[in-house]
Amino acid sequence: MSPAARLFHAPHFNNHIIAIMGSGKEIDIDVLEAGIRATLARHPRFCSVQVVLDETEGKKARWVRTDVEVERHLVIPDLHPGGGDTAAADRLLEDYVASLSRSTMDASRPMWEFHILNFPTSEAAAVAVFRVHHSLGDGASLMSLLLACFRKTSDPDALPSLPGPHLQPRSPPRSLRPVALLRWLWATLVFVWNTLLDVAHLVATSIFLKDTPTPFKGADGTEFHPKRFVHRTISLHDVKAIKNAMHCTINDVLVGVTSASFSRYLSRKYGKKLRGESGQQLPENIRMRSTLLVNMRPTPTIHALAAAMEEGNTTGDKWGNLLGYLLLPFPVALYEDPLDYVRKGKAIADRKKNSMEAVFTYRSAAVVFRHCGFKAAAALTHRVLSNTTLSFSNIVGPVEEIEFYGHPMVYLAPTVYGHPHALTVTLVSYMNTMKVVLAVDELAIPDPHQLLDDFADSLELIKEALPRTT
């Protein structure tokens, strides 16, 4: 097992990934079970248990193959919202998924399960909730593996289509002209300088540098508190319209919208108190940072994962938890021009791309794990996360409708819990929509649906502020 996989079993990092999937039709349990047996249960990680060897072998952990009884991994609660009230059904679903954060998984069998809720809600005819322990793989790989079990609704033999990556690797200049060479040298120096600054920032965060206490900041021990999972659909078309108008990336827009949402929510929380004292709605110089996990190797393609499940083979050295992370700041301010949130988001994203911060965190964690042990590595990571405010991630989903053995998926809402943050924000695209998914500690954030409203309102305000074209 990798150091990160071991870390996800530490008491303060008992991380689980949850994916809430809406189905366009009632779920046929027999068909679902047969489909899982033919796909997911054949992957090596999903038919293995984790075994810690005895002290004479250094307490090393290993994956050991075992027989999988798929029916033991299917949970079908007896829940029936009365009266056909979709609002009551939505609340019942939300309460049930929240209850999963209060329970642990049985480590004597592969640590994954599906919960089937066969009643209609406002968005779907039925819902399947996939829960898996984070030690089985990083979020991107696990999401790719899940999607590799699906097929296009329009072509049941074809795997889902995902947008291709747009990579611009750093390379020496093709021309050796002095101007081109100087530009490359300057860019390299800026890259090194940014990395040094980020390393210093990380070291300071691990020792003393803390985020400003806000309503988003969880109390000590928030990783042990139950979480509530809520989600809202926004328009991917609107996000792309902003991207095209402002000549930036989708990620830049999402960072800006998230920053605007946080500012709206906090201005409401602080407003009454501060308006009575100074006429302001937000304290000045709020420091709010998220941790953003970065996979340090290419994620296996869904075609490779589909082949691995079909053959029952591994995906070589491309599977596991090889993770670094970076600290992503979110400006909290009230701008007169809503487009300033996107401009700030683009500046922040461009700055973070121009650094090796994630590589440093991955390699430094590996060094600490190797020389100081598992507990020291866990304590260091916990301290960094505890001194920041939230977790943030953006996932690229399928561009066409997909189905699992005849069950069309109408939405996908993944998230994670078990780490020392009271707020986790996950953004995932699917067809022409974007899901905003929040995992919150209700002791810190008792009104998560209000924060979802702020996401939707912020996107609308930014879109309305775009210059009109004739």
UniProtKB/TrEMBL annotation:
It is found in: Cell membrane; Endoplasmic reticulum membrane. GO terms for cellular component: endoplasmic reticulum membrane; plasma membrane. The keyword Lyase does not apply. Pathway: Lipid metabolism; Glycerolipid metabolism; triacylglycerol biosynthesis. Residues 319-463 form the O-acyltransferase WSD1 C-terminal domain. This is Diacylglycerol O-acyltransferase. In the N-terminal section; belongs to the long-chain O-acyltransferase family. Its main location: membrane. One of its GO terms (molecular function) is diacylglycerol O-acyltransferase activity. It comes from the Eukaryota. It is a single-pass membrane protein. Keywords: Acyltransferase, Endoplasmic reticulum, Transferase. Residues 33-253 form the O-acyltransferase WSD1-like N-terminal domain. The lineage of its organism: Eukaryota, Viridiplantae, Streptophyta, Embryophyta, Tracheophyta. GO terms for biological process: triglyceride biosynthetic process. It catalyses: a long chain fatty alcohol + a fatty acyl-CoA = a long-chain alcohol wax ester + CoA; an acyl-CoA + a 1,2-diacyl-sn-glycerol = a triacyl-sn-glycerol + CoA.
